[in-house]
Design goal:
Number of strands: 12
Oligomer: single chain
Radius of gyration: 59 Å
Largest sheet: 8 strands, mixed
Shape: flat
Strand content: 5-15%
Structural class: alpha/beta
Number of helices: 23
């Protein structure tokens, strides 16, 4: 479990070097992509028309000037936050915008009558030419409707250029307008403020005049209603002979509360006594012992005193009985005293029971009397309450009518006095001036943002491409994805266009790094195969072009320096070793040796520069797989084992034909070649799987053409 957790932690560690390697790999592409996008953005920004923005500042009055101190007729409380929000929305309203458009005659301005852009024209032509798109029905639309539609569209354009922005924690608001003409932008910003002030004054004047007329009409009705309500109140007082209704009701209420409390106490006492009597009747009046056990009797002070005397007498009898006999005078006197005390206890208990019976009857009579008195008080309270409700109702009606009349009379007088007074809702603190510099387009910012955005996009695309690239890039991929040993890697040799790797590059001065990687492969292979005695070595790959022949040739070069080695070209479909070593195509080789048409000495070629013995493919057969499956091929390998220490066999790719699988059964070890950043992981896994299925001895994997930079 600990090993698993450690492995998971290692997998979750972010390898920053891997990310840096990806960025380093695509750095030029990322930079040039961002540069091209920035150049294009700069060209577009240069062609954009400059836009100017003018701003006017209004002060919205919180406490407007008033001729007298009265509430606004229009119903707007200037001390509330909603008041300012309302004014801001009025500034942005269509009514204000329409008035400004008509005042400045904006619809005839050249700026707002430009021909449609190329994109808009293209969209319009698409809609007209495509039959399945819905067409606008304009046959039944008259000129007034068309003008209204045009105005509505213009209002949308106007609203998109107008911005109303209140200044935080002040009564100021900025009115800004954007236009291509600097003077027009200033004129519109000032016109919006002027139209807003004028429209508010006009609306206020109209509302005030209407309110004055309506108040005068309502005053006469309210005066009549007030007189009628006062007459009703006075008539009710005289009819019921009312002087102080509230004082009388308070007296009855207090008396009712006291009686109710007395009734509750008396009823509780009666219930307790009746409960005691039920217990007495249940025990029986002659059973003294059970009566004495009743708590109400036992707790009585008289009974407790008598019981103490009984206990004292019993203790005296007990003490004397231990000294004297039963007939002793003192003993007889003590017993007589005990009997007397017990008799007294019985009398007291019976007397207490009789007293309880009398108390029960008295309490029942008291509860009945209090209940009757309480009932009479309730009737009296309800009668007085009814009169009080009627009185209050009439009095409330009088008060309401008087308040309404006073309010309307005050408003009417104030409105008459101030009907010709016009207090402005706002005033300019700063008028808009003609701007000198445009606010957009900000060309440098556009170019910078385009460069940054495209650079970031290119980085993301680089990571996405790298994530989607399911090829082998390092030894870690070989070991994790294929579960095979990494024998070595061949670095990528930079060549000119249409140039191929020299056959003897292994021995050249410029190929030292490449030669060292080949020797590392040889050492790794020999060390891993020490106890296996692998003489026949097959070199194969997943697909053509992965460096299989280059690997087998250079591995044979390195082995030939320390052991007697022969290189066999077993690719009987597309042989390439003849061409690499400049061997004539008619030279006999493996196919001739297997078919028995030539001798071994005639089928081999000796390379003087490397000291390597090479057996080319020979004549191309029509049935290569049958030749490899024949016993003669195994005999040829056995014959070669007697003469050579190492036999390197270059075979076709695993996915192309089955020749490599057949040869693998005759080989002691298989070296699998994978091209870096090219071979698909799934294809390589399938190729390795085929070799494992036939129980081939896979010595390891060689990663070829690795970009070590």
């Amino acid at each position: 479990m600990e090993l698993d957790s450690k492995a998971k932690v290692q997998e979750e560690v972010i390898d920053l070097r891997q990310y840096f390697a990806i960025l380093n790999k695509y750095k030029f592409k990322i930079f040039f992509f961002a540069l091209l996008v920035a150049i294009f953005a700069g060209i577009v920004a240069m062609k954009m028309t400059p836009v100017y923005k003018a701003t006017a500042t209004l002060l919205i009055e919180a406490e407007q000037a008033q001729a007298v101190n009265f509430q606004e007729i229009m119903g707007l409380d200037s001390g509330r936050k909603e008041y300012y929000l309302t004014q801001f929305e009025i500034l942005k309203s269509r009514a204000i915008a329409k008035k400004v458009i008509e005042t400045l005659n904006l619809m005839d301005q050249a700026e707002f009558n430009k021909p449609p852009s190329a994109l808009a024209s293209f969209k319009a032509s698409i809609k007209e030419n495509l039959p399945f798109l819905p067409k606008k029905q304009t046959a039944n639309v008259n000129e007034s409707d068309l003008a209204e539609q045009k105005m509505q569209r213009f209002l949308q354009v106007f609203a998109s250029r107008l911005s109303i922005s209140p200044v935080r924690k002040t009564q100021l608001v900025n009115i800004s307008f954007e236009a291509e003409d600097a003077k027009l932008a200033a004129a519109v910003a000032n016109a919006v403020g002027e139209v807003y002030i004028e429209s508010h004054m006009t609306a206020k004047m109209g509302v005030t005049q209407k309110a004055a007329g309506w108040l005068n009409e309502r005053l006469s009705d309210l005066r009549i209603r007030l007189d009628e309500s006062e007459d009703k109140l006075q008539a009710y007082r005289e009819q019921e002979n009312l002087i102080d209704v509230e004082g009388l009701l308070g007296l009855v209420t207090k008396e009712l509360e006291q009686t109710a409390q007395q009734f509750v106490v008396a009823r509780n006492d009666k219930n307790k006594l009746e409960s005691i009597m039920r217990v007495i009747n249940e025990y029986g009046r002659n059973d003294l012992e059970r009566l004495e056990s009743i708590p109400a009797i036992t707790s009585h002070s008289v009974i407790q005193d008598v019981k103490r005397e009984v206990v004292s007498a019993e203790r005296r009898v007990s003490e004397l009985s231990q000294i004297y006999g039963f007939k002793h005078p003192k003993m007889i006197a003590a017993k007589a005293e005990l009997e007397t005390v017990r008799s007294n206890l019985s009398k007291q208990v019976y007397s207490l029971v009789t007293g309880i019976e009398k108390e029960v009857k008295t309490s029942q009579a008291n509860v009945t009397a209090l209940q009757q008195e309480l009932q009479l008080l309730r009737v009296q309270y309800q009668r007085i309450t009814g009169k009080e409700n009627d009185y209050r109702k009439l009095k409330r009606e009088v008060q309401t009518n008087r308040n309404l009349f006073d309010t309307f009379l005050s408003r009417s007088k104030e409105t008459e006095i101030t009907s010709d007074f016009n207090a402005v809702v706002a005033r300019f603190t700063d008028r808009a001036f003609t701007p000198f510099a445009p606010i957009k387009p900000k060309k440098s910012l556009i170019v910078a943002l385009a460069f940054v955005a495209s650079f970031g996009l290119a980085v993301v695309l680089a990571f996405v491409i790298e994530a989607l690239n399911d090829t082998f890039k390092s030894s870690v991929d070989i070991e994790n994805k294929l579960s095979q040993r990494m024998l070595g890697l061949f670095p990528l040799v930079t060549l000119k266009k249409n140039e191929t790797l020299h056959q003897h590059y292994f021995f050249e001065e410029g190929g030292r790094k490449f030669a060292e990687s080949v020797r590392t492969l040889r050492t790794s292979f020999v060390l891993t195969q020490l106890d296996k005695g692998s003489k026949v070595i097959e070199v194969t790959s997943t697909l053509p072009g992965e460096g299989k022949t280059t690997t087998s040739t250079n591995l044979a070069f390195s082995l030939a320096q320390v052991e007697k080695t022969i290189l066999i070209d077993a690719d009987m479909r597309k042989p390439s070793i003849c061409k690499r070593f400049n061997i004539p195509l008619y030279h006999p080789g493996l196919t001739n040796l297997i078919s028995g048409t030539e001798q071994l000495e005639d089928c081999i070629y000796f390379d003087d520069k490397s000291g390597l013995t090479v057996m080319p493919c020979g004549q191309l057969p029509s049935n290569p797989l049958e030749l490899l499956l024949s016993p003669k091929f195994a005999e040829v390998l056995a014959q070669l084992k007697e003469s050579y220490d190492r036999i390197i066999i270059d075979t076709p790719p695993v996915h192309s034909v089955s020749d490599a699988l057949v040869i693998a059964q005759q080989s002691d070890a298989v070296i699998y070649v994978v091209k870096s950043d090219d071979t698909r992981i799934g294809a390589a896994q399938a190729g390795i799987g085929k070799l494992i299925d036939i129980n081939a001895n896979i010595a390891g994997v060689v990663l070829s053409q690795v970009d070590t930079k």
